[in-house]
Model the fold of this input.
Amino acid sequence: MSPSTLPPAPEQATPPGQAGVSLARQLLIWVLLPQMVLWMAGGVAAYKFAAGYANQAVDASLLQASRALARQLKPIGNGLLIDFPRAAQDVLEADPADKLLYMVSSPPGQFILGNQSLPAPVLPTQEAEPVEPELNTPYFYDGTMPVNGRAALHTPPGQPLRLVALYLRFGDEANAPQTMLVQVARSSANREELARRILVDMLLPMSSLVLLMTLIVWLGIRAGLAPLGRLRQQVEGRAPTDLAPLQLASAPRELWSLATALNTLLAAVQSNVSTQKRFIGDAAHQLRTPLAGLKSQTEIALQSTTDPELRARLQRVHDSATRSAHLVNQLLTLARAEPESVMAHDRRRFDLHRMAQTLTAEWVPRALRVQIDLGMDEAACTPVWVVANELLIREALTNLIDNALHYAGAGSQVTVRVTADHTSTTPHALLQVSDTGPGLAPADRERVFERFVRASDIGQGCGLGLAIVKEIVERHHGKVQLDEVLPHGLCVSIRLPLSPTPAT
Done:
């Protein structure tokens, strides 16, 4: 039997960079994205509506002001009587920030009264020819304050304006009637400010509703995905040997289908495990008995024959039968140590020191036959309590002692030692088997933890000894380590979680 071991159990954690985006986050994004688009579209539409309503209010005030100004202009013969007292001007120019600008011209374009150089009205055209303006019909249009000309106070050049133009006729038929143009303008700043205020007043409630809806949607998504979290908890909290069906009493139809598929898979795995267990039992019965009989027959034949050639052949047959029986026993032990085995989780609390002491005493006769000094270090004989499968830990120690007796060589010393280490952050039990044999090269100390790997040609080992040891130790959340013994030799250390001393 040679040093060997198994690879560690695969990690269940997701490799970095492999985790996908959260399903809850995806659902929230896909639900909120249309809401945000609609919210922005609603804001644009609300602004247009607000600007339209503001224009209507401004246009109504401009039309009222233009008609009131027109009433102050009274025709007298071929001229005009301007009855425009200072009080009326003060009313039009009462608000410096939103002053009304006005201009009266007759004929249209020839300044008479008001703020000179207001933008001319834009009249409709027909077949590229201007259409005569309709009298007493207001024309609303947008413009800017000209750079040249006498601009009104607080109205700098280039300022956007909203204007109304009203064409009026004065004079009688006998005196050649004339046309008069009355224009009234107002800065667009207040109109835009009014539109913005209306927009803000509309968007604030809309934003509050969006936030409230976002919260409701998030709570709904969490509630909808809760069965998925319960399913994850059932799977994560299971032991490797727990193949019972998943229970989801009130799962959605989609999740129920997933749980049904998982239960079908678990049933298939359980069937395969049962088949494997039956095969192991049958193999133990079918292989052990014939090999034991073959060994007995060859031993009898060796004792009853004196022919040297025949004895050599029988000895080879006996050695082959012994090696095969040992391999079968090792394979069955390895199968019991696999994570799928129920025995790997049949654990109880026991004294590791007493178990090692008893097992070492059982191996003393074998050690004496191969001229090796096997003993137990009793420097610390206090109980060392662990919670583990005693049968498997005993099998691991058996493999360590067997390895030491195989490879240490005649005249060597093999020492078994059990101590409790309370100095580390995690208290643990330390089980050591050391020998004064040839030891192992540093390059072989990791390689021997692989199955069917032998670091030496001495003996008839099959390369599974340390494989079984490491598999058993790791299934008990422990560690196994190989260290050099000076001046020569090897020390195998097993660390297992330490259990508190039982109350008396």
User: Anything to note?
Assistant: The domain at 347-497 is CATH 3.30.565.10 (Heat Shock Protein 90). The chain is about 45% helix and 20% strand. The longest strand covers residues 160-170. The chain has three domains: 46-197, 238-340, 347-497.
